[in-house]
Amino acid sequence: MEVELGIDVATLKSEIKKTYARVSTTPEEDFIFPTGRAWAEDLGYPEEELAEVPDSAVESFAGVANPFSLGRLEAGERVLDLGSGAGTDSLVAARMVGAGGGVTGIDMTPEMLDKARRSADEMGADNVEFVEGEAENLPFPDASFDVVISNGVIDLIPDKDAVFSELYRVLVPGGRIQVADVTIQKPVSEEGRRNIDLWTG
Questions:
Q1: Domain range holding 173?
Q2: Is the residue at 201 inside a domain?
Q3: Is the Cα dihedral 171, 172, 174, 178 positive or negative?
Q4: Of the candidates 13, 18, 53, which has an alpha carbon nearest to the alpha carbon of residue 36?
Q5: Do the domain assignments include residue 191?
Q6: What is the pLDDT of residues 10-56, one digit of tens each?
Q7: Does the first or last residue of the chain, that is N or C, have fewer Cβ atoms within 10 Å of its Cβ?
């Protein structure tokens, strides 16, 4: 599938998966973007909840900001973590919403999902699940979630209209979105839009 950007979306997704598989399997590698617990702490993640998240998840944290800076989640809320990666945000959210709430993390990278599931087991978080899927076609019924959180994911997806349409569909009326992401202030050149390395981080 080609989007207006002149880039093959299947190739782009494949390269993104490769990059984030490496973040999962070799988190000590030097990436172009910051990773790990110290980075999450620098971003101001809630200390109490972050301290409970196993190192196995946080070592592969690759967020760009802190979606919880937009507000704490409330007990009992149903939360979707779009692009959940190794599970740091999902596991923080699971602690915030408590046993009466639930968190579903969705990601397209199997290695990240495996790590997230193992970390949830290690933490004893039974109110969180991780699902393989893509943001442009969410495998959930309408009005499934009270809140969507996302961190550094939407910027990687060319068809942002499809993403936001899906988020609107799966949110309950009056639900909210807490997104931490990268934005640009100036148009990107044609050459830049075709450069997969710029898309993948």
A1: 9-183
A2: no
A3: negative
A4: 53
A5: no
A6: 888 888 888 898 999 999 998 989 999 999 999 999 999 999 999 99
A7: N
